[in-house]
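Running this now, will post back.
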Amino acid sequence: MHKTSRSFLFLLLVLFLLHSLSKIQGLPQQNSISPIDLSALQQIENSLTDVPSSRAPPSARFFTSWDFSSHDPCSTFAGITCSSPFLNPRRLTSLILGTGLSGSLGLAGSLSPSISNLTELNQLVLNPGIVTGPIPAQLGSLRNLRVISLTNNRLTGSIPLSIYALPNLHTLDLSNNQLWGSIPPGISHLDQLKVLVLASNRLSGEIPNELPTQLLHLDLKNNFFSGTLPARMPLSIRYLSASGNSMWGPLNRLESLSELVYLDISMNRFSGTIPPSLFRSSLLSMLLQRNNLSGGVPQQKNTTTPLSSSSSSSSSLKLDFYGEGSIVDLSHNMLTGELPAGAFSGVETLFLNNNRFTGKVPKEYVESLYSGGTKTLYLQHNYLTDFPIISDLKLPDSVSVCLSYNCMVPPVGLTACPASAGEQLSRPAYQCSKFNNGGSTG
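Update: finished.
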Protein backbone atom coordinates (compact mmCIF):
# COMPACT_ATOMS: atom_id res chain seq x y z
CA MET A 1 0.00 0.00 0.00
CA HIS A 2 1.19 3.50 -0.79
CA LYS A 3 2.76 5.28 2.14
CA THR A 4 0.34 8.20 1.79
CA SER A 5 -2.66 5.86 1.93
CA ARG A 6 -1.33 4.18 5.06
CA SER A 7 -0.85 7.56 6.71
CA PHE A 8 -4.38 8.58 5.79
CA LEU A 9 -5.87 5.37 7.23
CA PHE A 10 -3.83 5.80 10.41
CA LEU A 11 -5.13 9.34 10.74
CA LEU A 12 -8.71 8.14 10.34
CA LEU A 13 -8.14 5.52 13.04
CA VAL A 14 -6.72 8.12 15.43
CA LEU A 15 -9.67 10.46 14.79
CA PHE A 16 -12.11 7.59 15.42
CA LEU A 17 -10.43 6.71 18.72
CA LEU A 18 -10.32 10.34 19.82
CA HIS A 19 -14.00 10.72 18.95
CA SER A 20 -14.90 7.60 20.96
CA LEU A 21 -12.82 8.74 23.89
CA SER A 22 -14.35 12.21 23.84
CA LYS A 23 -17.80 10.66 24.03
CA ILE A 24 -16.79 8.71 27.12
CA GLN A 25 -15.04 11.66 28.72
CA GLY A 26 -17.90 13.90 27.80
CA LEU A 27 -20.47 11.93 29.73
CA PRO A 28 -20.39 14.21 32.79
CA GLN A 29 -21.23 17.16 30.54
CA GLN A 30 -23.81 15.32 28.46
CA ASN A 31 -25.34 13.35 31.35
CA SER A 32 -25.88 16.28 33.69
CA ILE A 33 -27.47 16.21 37.12
CA SER A 34 -31.18 15.43 37.29
CA PRO A 35 -33.33 18.58 36.93
CA ILE A 36 -35.36 17.38 39.94
CA ASP A 37 -32.22 17.19 42.08
CA LEU A 38 -30.97 20.54 40.79
CA SER A 39 -34.27 22.19 41.68
CA ALA A 40 -34.14 20.62 45.15
CA LEU A 41 -30.65 22.00 45.68
CA GLN A 42 -31.86 25.46 44.69
CA GLN A 43 -34.63 25.31 47.30
CA ILE A 44 -32.23 23.95 49.93
CA GLU A 45 -29.90 26.88 49.32
CA ASN A 46 -32.82 29.31 49.55
CA SER A 47 -33.70 28.00 53.03
CA LEU A 48 -30.16 28.09 54.46
CA THR A 49 -27.41 30.67 54.71
CA ASP A 50 -23.79 30.81 55.86
CA VAL A 51 -23.29 32.44 59.24
CA PRO A 52 -20.66 35.19 58.79
CA SER A 53 -17.49 34.61 60.76
CA SER A 54 -14.55 36.92 61.29
CA ARG A 55 -12.37 33.83 61.66
CA ALA A 56 -13.02 32.61 58.13
CA PRO A 57 -12.75 34.47 54.82
CA PRO A 58 -15.86 34.79 52.61
CA SER A 59 -14.35 32.26 50.22
CA ALA A 60 -14.59 29.63 52.98
CA ARG A 61 -18.37 29.90 53.14
CA PHE A 62 -20.15 26.75 52.19
CA PHE A 63 -22.46 28.04 49.45
CA THR A 64 -19.74 29.93 47.59
CA SER A 65 -19.30 27.01 45.18
CA TRP A 66 -23.03 26.55 44.53
CA ASP A 67 -23.17 28.28 41.14
CA PHE A 68 -26.35 27.14 39.42
CA SER A 69 -25.03 28.25 36.05
CA SER A 70 -22.36 25.57 36.32
CA HIS A 71 -22.51 22.90 33.60
CA ASP A 72 -21.50 20.21 36.12
CA PRO A 73 -22.70 20.74 39.73
CA CYS A 74 -21.57 17.20 40.58
CA SER A 75 -17.96 18.34 40.19
CA THR A 76 -18.19 21.90 41.50
CA PHE A 77 -20.78 22.01 44.30
CA ALA A 78 -19.31 21.55 47.80
CA GLY A 79 -20.90 18.82 49.90
CA ILE A 80 -22.55 16.75 47.19
CA THR A 81 -21.75 13.39 45.69
CA CYS A 82 -23.47 12.10 42.58
CA SER A 83 -24.08 8.71 41.06
CA SER A 84 -21.86 7.25 38.34
CA PRO A 85 -21.23 9.50 35.28
CA PHE A 86 -22.38 6.58 33.15
CA LEU A 87 -25.94 7.08 34.42
CA ASN A 88 -28.22 9.52 32.67
CA PRO A 89 -29.20 11.71 34.42
CA ARG A 90 -26.92 11.69 37.44
CA ARG A 91 -28.58 11.63 40.86
CA LEU A 92 -27.43 12.92 44.23
CA THR A 93 -26.35 10.13 46.58
CA SER A 94 -24.79 12.18 49.40
CA LEU A 95 -25.49 15.66 50.76
CA ILE A 96 -23.27 17.19 53.47
CA LEU A 97 -24.43 20.69 54.42
CA GLY A 98 -21.88 23.05 55.99
CA THR A 99 -18.11 23.02 55.85
CA GLY A 100 -17.55 21.54 59.31
CA LEU A 101 -14.34 23.59 59.58
CA SER A 102 -13.26 24.91 62.97
CA GLY A 103 -13.31 28.52 61.79
CA SER A 104 -16.86 28.24 60.46
CA LEU A 105 -19.98 29.01 62.50
CA GLY A 106 -21.98 26.75 60.23
CA LEU A 107 -25.31 27.39 58.60
CA ALA A 108 -28.47 29.16 59.73
CA GLY A 109 -32.04 28.88 58.50
CA SER A 110 -34.13 25.73 58.27
CA LEU A 111 -34.14 22.40 56.48
CA SER A 112 -36.21 22.49 53.31
CA PRO A 113 -38.75 19.68 52.74
CA SER A 114 -37.39 19.67 49.19
CA ILE A 115 -34.64 17.36 50.43
CA SER A 116 -37.24 14.62 50.00
CA ASN A 117 -37.01 15.09 46.22
CA LEU A 118 -33.47 13.68 46.32
CA THR A 119 -34.86 10.19 46.10
CA GLU A 120 -31.51 8.44 45.55
CA LEU A 121 -29.92 10.01 48.61
CA ASN A 122 -28.22 7.55 50.98
CA GLN A 123 -26.42 10.04 53.24
CA LEU A 124 -27.69 13.32 54.73
CA VAL A 125 -25.36 15.27 57.04
CA LEU A 126 -25.84 18.70 58.59
CA ASN A 127 -22.66 19.99 60.19
CA PRO A 128 -22.80 22.06 63.44
CA GLY A 129 -24.48 25.44 63.10
CA ILE A 130 -27.62 27.27 64.21
CA VAL A 131 -30.22 25.72 61.91
CA THR A 132 -33.66 25.91 63.52
CA GLY A 133 -37.14 24.53 62.93
CA PRO A 134 -38.37 20.97 62.60
CA ILE A 135 -36.89 17.96 60.86
CA PRO A 136 -38.95 17.58 57.66
CA ALA A 137 -41.28 14.60 57.95
CA GLN A 138 -40.79 14.11 54.21
CA LEU A 139 -37.38 12.56 54.91
CA GLY A 140 -39.25 9.35 55.55
CA SER A 141 -39.82 9.00 51.80
CA LEU A 142 -36.07 8.65 51.13
CA ARG A 143 -36.02 4.86 51.25
CA ASN A 144 -32.32 4.62 50.36
CA LEU A 145 -31.10 6.68 53.32
CA ARG A 146 -28.44 4.89 55.37
CA VAL A 147 -27.05 7.83 57.34
CA ILE A 148 -28.89 10.78 58.90
CA SER A 149 -26.64 13.06 60.96
CA LEU A 150 -28.12 16.43 61.97
CA THR A 151 -26.06 17.25 65.06
CA ASN A 152 -25.23 20.37 67.09
CA ASN A 153 -27.86 22.72 65.76
CA ARG A 154 -31.13 24.10 67.15
CA LEU A 155 -33.66 21.78 65.58
CA THR A 156 -36.98 21.66 67.39
CA GLY A 157 -40.15 19.58 67.46
CA SER A 158 -40.49 15.83 67.62
CA ILE A 159 -38.57 13.29 65.58
CA PRO A 160 -40.80 12.41 62.60
CA LEU A 161 -42.23 8.92 62.91
CA SER A 162 -41.50 8.41 59.22
CA ILE A 163 -37.75 8.34 59.97
CA TYR A 164 -38.24 5.33 62.21
CA ALA A 165 -39.58 3.41 59.23
CA LEU A 166 -36.62 3.85 56.86
CA PRO A 167 -35.70 0.27 55.92
CA ASN A 168 -31.98 0.80 55.20
CA LEU A 169 -31.11 3.22 57.99
CA HIS A 170 -27.72 2.39 59.56
CA THR A 171 -26.94 5.58 61.53
CA LEU A 172 -29.30 8.11 63.10
CA ASP A 173 -27.54 10.95 64.96
CA LEU A 174 -29.72 13.87 66.06
CA SER A 175 -27.70 14.82 69.14
CA ASN A 176 -27.32 18.29 70.63
CA ASN A 177 -30.52 19.87 69.40
CA GLN A 178 -33.78 20.88 71.10
CA LEU A 179 -35.95 17.95 70.04
CA TRP A 180 -38.76 16.71 72.24
CA GLY A 181 -41.15 13.77 72.32
CA SER A 182 -40.51 10.07 72.83
CA ILE A 183 -38.97 7.11 71.04
CA PRO A 184 -41.78 5.05 69.47
CA PRO A 185 -41.94 1.27 69.94
CA GLY A 186 -41.74 0.94 66.16
CA ILE A 187 -38.02 1.69 66.26
CA SER A 188 -37.48 -2.04 66.76
CA HIS A 189 -38.37 -2.56 63.10
CA LEU A 190 -35.17 -0.81 61.97
CA ASP A 191 -33.29 -4.08 61.59
CA GLN A 192 -30.36 -2.37 59.82
CA LEU A 193 -29.82 0.29 62.51
CA LYS A 194 -26.39 0.06 64.17
CA VAL A 195 -25.89 3.57 65.60
CA LEU A 196 -28.56 5.60 67.44
CA VAL A 197 -27.44 8.90 69.01
CA LEU A 198 -30.15 11.14 70.48
CA ALA A 199 -28.07 12.69 73.27
CA SER A 200 -28.55 16.21 74.64
CA ASN A 201 -32.10 16.94 73.58
CA ARG A 202 -35.39 17.24 75.48
CA LEU A 203 -36.69 13.77 74.79
CA SER A 204 -38.81 12.04 77.43
CA GLY A 205 -40.88 8.94 78.16
CA GLU A 206 -39.59 5.41 78.54
CA ILE A 207 -37.08 3.70 76.29
CA PRO A 208 -38.97 1.04 74.29
CA ASN A 209 -38.64 -2.49 75.63
CA GLU A 210 -37.54 -3.69 72.20
CA LEU A 211 -34.73 -2.01 70.30
CA PRO A 212 -33.15 -2.90 66.93
CA THR A 213 -31.51 -6.28 67.41
CA GLN A 214 -28.25 -5.35 65.63
CA LEU A 215 -27.66 -2.10 67.53
CA LEU A 216 -24.01 -1.46 68.41
CA HIS A 217 -24.04 2.13 69.71
CA LEU A 218 -26.84 3.71 71.79
CA ASP A 219 -26.40 7.20 73.25
CA LEU A 220 -29.38 8.78 75.03
CA LYS A 221 -27.58 10.90 77.64
CA ASN A 222 -28.78 14.27 78.89
CA ASN A 223 -32.48 13.98 78.15
CA PHE A 224 -35.57 13.43 80.34
CA PHE A 225 -36.06 9.70 79.90
CA SER A 226 -37.70 7.83 82.78
CA GLY A 227 -38.59 4.25 83.61
CA THR A 228 -36.37 1.19 83.66
CA LEU A 229 -33.83 -0.18 81.23
CA PRO A 230 -35.39 -1.99 78.25
CA ALA A 231 -36.47 -5.55 78.96
CA ARG A 232 -34.70 -6.88 75.87
CA MET A 233 -31.44 -5.08 75.32
CA PRO A 234 -29.65 -5.89 72.04
CA LEU A 235 -26.98 -8.49 72.78
CA SER A 236 -24.74 -6.89 70.15
CA ILE A 237 -24.48 -3.53 71.91
CA ARG A 238 -20.97 -2.28 72.65
CA TYR A 239 -21.57 1.36 73.64
CA LEU A 240 -24.43 2.29 75.97
CA SER A 241 -24.93 5.74 77.49
CA ALA A 242 -28.08 6.92 79.24
CA SER A 243 -26.54 9.24 81.84
CA GLY A 244 -28.22 12.40 83.04
CA ASN A 245 -31.81 11.16 82.83
CA SER A 246 -34.44 10.15 85.43
CA MET A 247 -34.30 6.40 85.00
CA TRP A 248 -34.72 3.97 87.85
CA GLY A 249 -34.88 0.28 88.71
CA PRO A 250 -32.29 -2.52 88.96
CA LEU A 251 -29.37 -3.21 86.65
CA ASN A 252 -30.02 -6.92 86.12
CA ARG A 253 -31.01 -6.28 82.49
CA LEU A 254 -27.35 -5.54 81.77
CA GLU A 255 -26.17 -8.99 82.78
CA SER A 256 -26.38 -10.55 79.32
CA LEU A 257 -24.53 -7.74 77.50
CA SER A 258 -21.22 -9.51 77.08
CA GLU A 259 -20.09 -7.27 74.19
CA LEU A 260 -20.20 -4.03 76.20
CA VAL A 261 -17.03 -1.95 76.07
CA TYR A 262 -18.47 1.38 77.28
CA LEU A 263 -21.27 1.78 79.85
CA ASP A 264 -22.43 5.11 81.26
CA ILE A 265 -25.72 5.21 83.16
CA SER A 266 -24.56 7.74 85.74
CA MET A 267 -26.71 10.47 87.28
CA ASN A 268 -29.97 8.57 87.34
CA ARG A 269 -31.89 6.81 90.12
CA PHE A 270 -30.91 3.19 89.53
CA SER A 271 -30.94 1.03 92.64
CA GLY A 272 -30.07 -2.46 93.85
CA THR A 273 -26.79 -4.28 93.42
CA ILE A 274 -24.28 -4.16 90.58
CA PRO A 275 -24.36 -7.37 88.49
CA PRO A 276 -21.09 -9.34 88.96
CA SER A 277 -20.88 -9.86 85.18
CA LEU A 278 -20.03 -6.16 84.72
CA PHE A 279 -16.72 -6.56 86.53
CA ARG A 280 -14.59 -7.73 83.63
CA SER A 281 -11.57 -6.25 81.94
CA SER A 282 -13.25 -6.06 78.51
CA LEU A 283 -15.56 -3.33 79.86
CA LEU A 284 -13.10 -0.45 79.61
CA SER A 285 -15.45 2.26 80.90
CA MET A 286 -18.08 1.65 83.58
CA LEU A 287 -19.67 4.86 84.84
CA LEU A 288 -22.36 4.23 87.47
CA GLN A 289 -21.83 7.27 89.71
CA ARG A 290 -24.58 9.30 91.38
CA ASN A 291 -27.26 6.62 91.58
CA ASN A 292 -28.79 4.75 94.52
CA LEU A 293 -26.81 1.53 94.14
CA SER A 294 -26.26 -0.59 97.23
CA GLY A 295 -24.63 -3.83 98.32
CA GLY A 296 -21.01 -4.78 97.85
CA VAL A 297 -18.64 -5.22 94.95
CA PRO A 298 -17.99 -8.91 94.21
CA GLN A 299 -14.52 -10.33 94.73
CA GLN A 300 -12.65 -11.29 91.58
CA LYS A 301 -9.80 -13.69 91.00
CA ASN A 302 -6.54 -11.83 91.59
CA THR A 303 -3.55 -12.55 89.36
CA THR A 304 -1.46 -9.61 90.47
CA THR A 305 2.24 -10.23 90.88
CA PRO A 306 3.02 -9.14 94.47
CA LEU A 307 4.99 -5.97 94.91
CA SER A 308 7.51 -6.07 97.71
CA SER A 309 10.12 -3.71 99.01
CA SER A 310 12.77 -5.92 97.41
CA SER A 311 11.41 -5.33 93.90
CA SER A 312 14.09 -3.68 91.82
CA SER A 313 11.74 -2.07 89.32
CA SER A 314 8.01 -1.54 89.07
CA SER A 315 8.24 -2.19 85.32
CA SER A 316 8.59 -5.90 86.02
CA LEU A 317 5.08 -6.13 87.44
CA LYS A 318 2.39 -8.10 85.61
CA LEU A 319 -1.13 -6.91 86.38
CA ASP A 320 -4.66 -7.64 85.27
CA PHE A 321 -4.98 -4.56 83.06
CA TYR A 322 -8.24 -3.09 81.86
CA GLY A 323 -6.45 -1.06 79.24
CA GLU A 324 -5.11 2.41 78.67
CA GLY A 325 -7.81 4.99 79.30
CA SER A 326 -9.96 2.59 81.32
CA ILE A 327 -12.21 4.18 83.93
CA VAL A 328 -14.51 2.83 86.63
CA ASP A 329 -16.65 5.33 88.56
CA LEU A 330 -18.91 3.98 91.32
CA SER A 331 -18.81 7.16 93.40
CA HIS A 332 -21.77 8.78 95.17
CA ASN A 333 -23.78 5.62 95.77
CA MET A 334 -24.52 3.56 98.89
CA LEU A 335 -22.11 0.68 98.32
CA THR A 336 -20.97 -1.18 101.41
CA GLY A 337 -18.55 -3.87 102.56
CA GLU A 338 -14.84 -4.23 102.04
CA LEU A 339 -13.15 -3.27 98.80
CA PRO A 340 -12.62 -6.28 96.52
CA ALA A 341 -8.99 -7.23 96.11
CA GLY A 342 -8.80 -8.04 92.41
CA ALA A 343 -11.84 -6.48 90.75
CA PHE A 344 -10.09 -3.27 89.67
CA SER A 345 -6.47 -4.26 89.15
CA GLY A 346 -4.98 -1.95 86.55
CA VAL A 347 -7.99 0.33 86.07
CA GLU A 348 -6.35 3.60 85.04
CA THR A 349 -8.92 5.88 86.70
CA LEU A 350 -10.84 4.54 89.67
CA PHE A 351 -13.45 6.53 91.62
CA LEU A 352 -14.93 4.72 94.65
CA ASN A 353 -15.43 7.80 96.80
CA ASN A 354 -18.59 8.83 98.66
CA ASN A 355 -19.82 5.36 99.51
CA ARG A 356 -19.80 3.27 102.69
CA PHE A 357 -16.82 0.99 102.11
CA THR A 358 -15.08 -0.31 105.22
CA GLY A 359 -11.89 -2.15 106.19
CA LYS A 360 -8.40 -1.86 104.78
CA VAL A 361 -7.51 -0.80 101.27
CA PRO A 362 -6.32 -4.02 99.57
CA LYS A 363 -2.61 -4.19 98.77
CA GLU A 364 -3.50 -4.86 95.11
CA TYR A 365 -4.69 -1.25 94.81
CA VAL A 366 -1.36 -0.01 96.14
CA GLU A 367 0.61 -2.30 93.82
CA SER A 368 -1.35 -1.03 90.84
CA LEU A 369 -0.51 2.55 91.81
CA TYR A 370 3.22 1.86 92.19
CA SER A 371 3.30 0.00 88.88
CA GLY A 372 1.60 2.87 87.04
CA GLY A 373 -1.39 0.78 86.04
CA THR A 374 -3.68 2.98 88.16
CA LYS A 375 -3.07 6.71 87.83
CA THR A 376 -6.06 8.11 89.75
CA LEU A 377 -7.56 6.54 92.87
CA TYR A 378 -10.25 8.40 94.79
CA LEU A 379 -11.40 6.73 98.02
CA GLN A 380 -12.46 9.75 100.06
CA HIS A 381 -15.67 9.86 102.10
CA ASN A 382 -15.83 6.20 103.03
CA TYR A 383 -15.08 4.33 106.30
CA LEU A 384 -11.72 2.81 105.37
CA THR A 385 -9.25 2.12 108.15
CA ASP A 386 -5.83 1.61 106.55
CA PHE A 387 -3.80 2.22 103.38
CA PRO A 388 -0.74 -0.08 103.23
CA ILE A 389 1.98 2.10 101.70
CA ILE A 390 5.37 0.65 100.76
CA SER A 391 7.87 2.82 102.59
CA ASP A 392 10.95 2.32 100.41
CA LEU A 393 9.21 2.92 97.08
CA LYS A 394 8.02 6.20 95.63
CA LEU A 395 4.74 6.63 93.82
CA PRO A 396 5.04 7.89 90.22
CA ASP A 397 4.55 11.64 89.86
CA SER A 398 1.58 11.03 87.57
CA VAL A 399 -0.43 9.30 90.33
CA SER A 400 -3.27 11.06 92.19
CA VAL A 401 -4.62 9.50 95.39
CA CYS A 402 -7.30 10.89 97.71
CA LEU A 403 -7.99 9.19 101.06
CA SER A 404 -9.45 12.04 103.10
CA TYR A 405 -12.46 11.72 105.39
CA ASN A 406 -12.09 8.04 106.20
CA CYS A 407 -11.51 6.29 109.53
CA MET A 408 -7.77 6.88 109.36
CA VAL A 409 -5.25 9.62 108.93
CA PRO A 410 -4.05 9.55 105.29
CA PRO A 411 -0.34 8.81 104.88
CA VAL A 412 1.81 11.87 104.25
CA GLY A 413 1.79 12.88 100.61
CA LEU A 414 -1.43 11.05 99.69
CA THR A 415 -3.76 14.02 99.80
CA ALA A 416 -4.15 14.92 96.11
CA CYS A 417 -7.87 15.55 96.56
CA PRO A 418 -10.43 17.64 94.69
CA ALA A 419 -11.94 20.64 96.46
CA SER A 420 -15.19 18.71 96.93
CA ALA A 421 -13.41 16.34 99.33
CA GLY A 422 -13.30 19.06 101.97
CA GLU A 423 -10.50 19.98 104.35
CA GLN A 424 -11.03 17.33 107.03
CA LEU A 425 -8.44 14.59 106.68
CA SER A 426 -10.35 11.99 108.69
CA ARG A 427 -13.81 11.30 110.04
CA PRO A 428 -14.76 12.01 113.65
CA ALA A 429 -14.26 8.92 115.80
CA TYR A 430 -17.93 8.70 116.75
CA GLN A 431 -18.94 8.32 113.10
CA CYS A 432 -16.53 5.46 112.57
CA SER A 433 -17.62 3.75 115.77
CA LYS A 434 -21.29 4.19 115.01
CA PHE A 435 -20.93 2.90 111.47
CA ASN A 436 -18.84 -0.11 112.41
CA ASN A 437 -21.40 -1.02 115.01
CA GLY A 438 -24.11 -1.20 112.37
CA GLY A 439 -25.57 2.28 112.85
CA SER A 440 -26.27 4.82 110.15
CA THR A 441 -24.33 7.99 109.62
CA GLY A 442 -24.85 11.20 107.81
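Helices lie at 3-25, 27-30, 35-47, 73-76, 363-371, 429-436. More later if anyone needs it.
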